[in-house]
Amino acid sequence: MLKDDTTFYGRRIGYNASRRKKARKEKVKNKTLSLLKWFFKKGWVFSLLLVFIGIGAWNFKSHLKNLDFKKLRTLKTIEITGNETISYEELMRSSGLSIGMYMGDLDMDLLKNKILENPTVKSVDLNRSFFSSLKIAITEVKPLMLSLEGGVWKVYSEKSSLLPASIASAYHLPVIDFKNSEELKLITEFLNDMKETDENLYKKLSQVCINEQTQSIEVFFRDLRFKTLFHIHAWESKQFEQFKLLTQSSIADLKEANEVDMRFVGFAYIKSSKKRYGNG
Predict the structure, then answer these.
(1) For residue 181, what are the contacts with CB-CB under 8 A and spacing of at least 6?
(2) Cβ neighbours of residue 135 under 8 Å, at least 6 residues apart?
(3) What is the pLDDT of residues 122-160, one digit of tens each?
(4) DSSP per-residue codes, 97-164
(5) Is the pLDDT of residue 185 over 90?
């Protein structure tokens, strides 16, 4: 007869319960032995690896606390293209840029406006990488017009600024006449508009001036004998195409015309020496 086992507290357990208890002990013993066998064969490698990972994570955490992320995002390279007359040093100085500055401090709109303040810069395109580089693509102004001032010929740009261009290289430009900076600004805007709309028509310009009495911009073309008037403030780009079509037509009055009035959008009034006015 088998003796019944007891629990830790002295309570007796039956035969079947005793067998199940011994089976569980045996199972735990086998698993423990199997785990120890695996550990001494392979497990120590994984344990050692975990130790190294833990040490590395601790060191990284300590290093992370002392890391200055600003140093990772400093401006290291500045590439400038399109600058022919403005130097790299001048652009850096006027824009306030410097190698080593924090990329997060770069205000792209403010930087663009600073660069555009330079009278030789017509447009600028900025492109920065997240970490360390900035690319600046510049389009410089070109000569737009000539003016005779005090017996000296001067070349003006697309931004109304004086350019150090020689008269020999600018002889083909239209000659302008203006009394003040406001008139110069109006003529510049008018010529830029015509050049962008129809560059061939702009290239035919001979003289341009402003007439305050008639509120017009008076224009002479090299291939036409008459004067053309555009409104001093309210001209439209489409009028240049209308004027071009008019001069290519076979209207008889144009042969005797000494003035074509384009101040009214959609209409052209022709004034000739023989006939006061005629519709064009």
Answers:
(1) 160
(2) 79, 81, 126, 127, 128
(3) 999 999 876 788 999 999 999 999 999 988 999 999 999
(4) --TT-BGGG--HHHHHHHHHTSTTEEEEEEEE-SSSEEEEEEEE--EEEEEEETTEEEEEETTS-EE-
(5) yes
Retrieve residue 6's tokens.
Answer: 């007891």
- The predicted model scores a pTM of 0.66
Instruction: State the Cα angle at 234 between 280 and 157, rounded to 5°.
Output: 105
Which run of H or E residues covers position 175? strand 175-177
Helix extents (H) in the chain: 15-38, 44-65, 69-72, 88-95, 108-116, 181-197, 199-203, 238-248
Token pair recorded at residue 28: 């735990």
Structure tokens at 45: 């490698």
- The answer to whether residues 143 and 85 touch, using CB atoms and an 8 Å cutoff, is no
State how far the alpha carbon of 91 is from the alpha carbons of 86, 94, 154, in Å: 7, 5, 25
Provide the terminal-to-terminal Cα distance of the chain, rounded to the nearest Å.
135
Query: pLDDT tens digit string along 7-45?
Result: 555 566 666 666 776 777 777 777 777 776 766 666 666
Give kind and range of the element (H or E) at residue 279. Answer: strand 278-279
